[in-house]
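Researcher: Please predict.
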Amino acid sequence: MSEPRESSLGALVVSDPQTPSTSSFAVLPVLGLSGDWKFRRLKNKGKPGRNNLLSLRWIPAKPRAVVAGIVVSKKVGNAVTRNRIRRRLREALRRMDFPPIEAMIVVNPEAANSRYPELFKALLSAARKAGLK
């Protein structure tokens, strides 16, 4: 794979040398959501989607990025488990081709022992139910 380069929109563009240049795709950066009022706005006005491992709420965003807040309570497990789930979900968000959105992902305790592929499928399923994909 060739080296990533930045596009005019500020998104990272990655192209594969084995495929024609028309198959390049823009990877939007995944930023963290901060501020209590943003979480409340997503809870009240966000489009919902859920499954047994997590729930997702999203609204369109103005910045050219995916802004996500990942909520993992202590019911899920200890700090190591919670941080592992956050890292896996952030990576799943990076690999999905989402438009610019603000999203809140709330993880259920059933996700404590989930591996990356299970979390990826759960996030994709919730996104489809929420009308994202």
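Model: The chain has one domain: 29-129.
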